[in-house]
Design a protein that fits this description.
There is one protein chain. The longest helix has 35 residues. Helix 2 packs antiparallel against helix 3. The protein contains three helices and no strands. The protein has 86 residues and is mainly α.
Length: 86
């Protein structure tokens, strides 16, 4: 998973608070997406029946993954806007 911004940058003061917050939101959103994809792969790997696994993924994980991807996209746009405003 991606590291938190305060672990990546020793001194957060070098960036604006808005930019740092937006970047952290982006990292958090990306981490959630990554977690969901790992869960999807784990579901596929652990289910005795592939059809059953695909059903679980389509009914439960796919909507959550789509929501996480929208959150990541919005967070990316917000972060890009914050670095363009410099």
């Amino acid at each position: 998973m991606k590291e938190r911004i305060d672990e990546r940058i020793p001194s957060i003061e070098t960036e604006s608070n808005e930019e740092a917050k937006a970047y952290q939101e982006l990292l958090d959103a990306e981490n959630e997406e990554e977690r969901l994809f790992k869960e999807m792969h784990q579901t596929l790997d652990s289910a005795p029946d592939r059809l059953e696994a695909e059903s679980v993924i389509c009914e439960q994980l796919a909507p959550t993954i789509a929501q996480a991807q929208r959150r990541t996209s919005a967070a990316l746009r917000k972060w890009l806007a914050s670095i363009r405003s410099k």
